[in-house]
UniProtKB/TrEMBL annotation, chain A:
This is Dihydroorotate dehydrogenase. Heterotetramer of 2 PyrK and 2 PyrD type B subunits. Pathway: Pyrimidine metabolism; UMP biosynthesis via de novo pathway. Substrate binds at residues 46, 70-74, 128.
UniProtKB/TrEMBL annotation, chain B:
Belongs to the PyrK family. It comes from the Archaea. [2Fe-2S] cluster binds at residues 199, 204, 207, 219. It comes from Thermococcus argininiproducens. Binds 1 [2Fe-2S] cluster per subunit. InterPro entries: Cbr1-like_FAD-bd_dom, Cyt_c3_hydrogenase_gsu, Dihydroorotate_DH_ele_sf, Dihydroorotate_DH_Fe-S-bd, FAD-bd_FR_type, FNR_nucleotide-bd, PyrK_electron_transfer, Riboflavin_synthase-like_b-brl. This is Dihydroorotate dehydrogenase.
Length: 309, 235
């Protein structure tokens, strides 16, 4: 019995639910020798800003118990560099590309959406409202009104599906998720790194040069998973679940909590082949459970789980 | 990732040689390249280790105990399974002047890639200087290697002092070791850098290095750089 891993969301057919999360996979090219992109549902490209950014000074990464804290700082070639250097190469990756953008003002968001709208290689746009690693900047996703403003602005400028990347560590993610949906978002990504830090006891100083960063990996999975569960309980909008998916069981938990697509970040850094390993695990599980389609298990935790036969 | 079984270890203080037998081979590693090594459980990330020697699926690493992963390797029993992938990074020979011979200057675990270099490219090796603080390190090295050791505790000299006595126009320098040591080298030296890496292949941007040509990555563009191209204040 074959298992149907495909899923249609945002009017787009994904061959499977695995999405490389924005950041750890860069623009994908460096991973090509290790990962068969034709087996990955989609890649969310590294976030693009208006101006090129060199990122934060190192150290930018530190281990934490059960996770890692990073403060890369959106290192990217800027929208112009992206269009001239990266976009012409994107057809080398045989998977769906989700463009990720981050503006520092409403005007910047406008410009980024307009430019992304023109790029035919990119059928979906993710608004990164929640990067925890920008010095001195508040995250847009911490504020209902700001979230709404950005999403509305983007909605007016493009017909491409818009996904809004939310911060998991806000007072009430549901309120912000609702605001994004009302403003015209087609989907949500939940979540992003959770603000965190470590201090070197020998020096008495923060380990990361930026002092704080975003915690990712297994440590945040139960937290983000609960946000996905709670949000999908009240909102009927496709969710990309991200946060600490290291193996197929983690991935399935997100699907069962209500995520349609499953984002993989830290695990790609540990082992570039992990997305295909995770996918095989999901497939084997579905076969064992005699479930024909992956999409049948999405949100099953809200529907009383598997019926006992 | 490839299964790597710990076959042998020889430890003195915080330094040790570790021999891993790999279940599959890694493709023709050259000196300067590194493997990403991961413990089966904690810590989460794989970490980069320069290759000290590699032959017949036998990987030799010379490691200093610094954090959780290295601590784990030191305390692991023989037979423990780790995971590796690689080789990553660029061989030294792809970025150095091949008409020269080189003094290989290592500090601590920085001697690793230099040893591999002298094994694979004896014709490019002028001599080796292996710098350590403590004399107990001698017991880890065989008779042939003893003469290359520069032990601060014994002579009061650092490896850079020893280098300064040997420097000439004709010979180049390749160095790998702690940042203060690298900073004290002459201008024309090639320096092999360590960095905190996430992926080791150029995607995650953790190992950023500021150079005169902008931000580069130690994993993808290095690990070898010319000393004068580096913006040292950023490190």
């Amino acid at each position: 019995m074959g298992v149907d891993l495909s899923i249609e969301v945002f009017g787009i057919q994904f061959k499977n639910p695995i999405v490389l999360a924005s950041g750890p996979a860069g623009f994908g090219f460096e991973l090509q020798p290790y990962l068969d992109f034709s087996k990955v549902g989609a890649i969310t490209l590294k976030t693009i800003t208006v101006k090129a950014r060199e990122g934060n000074p190192p150290p930018r990464l530190v281990d934490a118990y059960g996770g890692i804290i990073n403060s890369i700082g959106l290192q990217n070639p800027g929208i112009k560099g992206f269009i001239t250097e990266i976009v012409p190469e994107l057809n080398k990756l045989n998977t769906i590309k989700i463009g990720s953008i981050a503006g520092f003002s409403l005007e910047e968001w406008q410009l980024l959406v307009e430019e992304m709208d023109k790029i035919k290689e990119i059928p979906l746009i993710e608004l990164n409202l929640s990067c925890p690693n920008i010095k001195g900047k508040r995250r847009w996703a911490e504020d209902v009104k700001l979230t709404q403003k950005v999403v509305k602005t983007a909605r007016e400028l493009t017909n491409k599906p818009i996904i809004v990347k939310l911060a998991p560590d806000v007072t009430d993610i549901i309120e912000i998720a609702k605001a994004a949906a009302e403003a015209g978002a087609d989907g949500l990504t939940i979540g992003n790194g959770i603000q965190a830090m470590r201090i070197n006891v020998e020096t008495g100083l923060p380990v990361l040069k930026l002092k704080t960063g975003g915690l990712g990996g297994p440590a945040i999975k139960p937290i983000t998973l609960a946000r996905v569960f709670k949000t999908s309980e009240v909102l009927d909008i496709p969710i990309i679940g991200i946060g600490g998916i290291m193996d197929w069981q983690d991935a399935l938990e997100y699907a069962m909590a209500g995520a349609s697509l499953l984002g993989i970040g830290t695990a790609v850094m540990v082992d570039p082949q992990s997305p295909t390993t995770i996918l095989s695990g999901i497939e084997a599980f579905l076969k064992r459970k005699k479930i024909k389609r992956f999409r049948d298990i999405i949100g099953i935790a809200h529907r009383g789980g598997f019926s006992v036969s | 990732m490839i299964e790597a079984e710990l076959k042998k270890k020889r430890i003195s203080g915080d330094y040790g040689f570790f021999i891993f037998k790999l279940q599959e081979k890694i493709e023709n590693p050259d000196a300067g390249q590194f493997v990403m090594l991961k413990a089966p459980d904690e810590p989460i990330l794989a970490k980069p280790f320069s290759i000290y020697s590699y032959k017949n699926r036998e990987l030799v690493l010379f490691i200093k105990r610094v954090g959780r992963l290295t601590g784990r390797i030191f305390s692991s029993p023989i037979g423990e399974i780790f995971y590796v992938r690689g080789p990553h990074g660029n061989p030294y020979i792809s970025s150095i002047d091949l008409t020269k011979r080189y003094i290989l200057v290592g500090g601590g675990s920085g001697i690793s890639p230099l040893n591999f270099f002298s094994e694979l490219h004896p014709e490019l090796t002028y001599t080796k200087l292996y710098g350590f603080k403590e004399a107990h390190i001698r017991k880890l090295f065989n008779e042939n290697e003893q003469k290359h050791l520069v032990i601060e505790e014994e002579s009061g000299h650092t490896v850079v002092d020893a280098l300064n006595e040997l420097i000439s126009e004709e010979v180049g320098i390749i160095a790998c070791g702690p940042i203060p040591m690298l900073k004290n080298l002459p201008k024309n030296a090639y320096v092999s850098l360590e960095a905190v890496m996430g992926c080791g292949v150029g995607t995650c941007k953790s190992c950023a290095l500021k150079t005169i040509e902008g931000v580069k990555l130690v994993c993808k563009d290095g690990p070898l750089f010319r000393k004068e191209e580096i913006t040292w204040e950023w490190i």
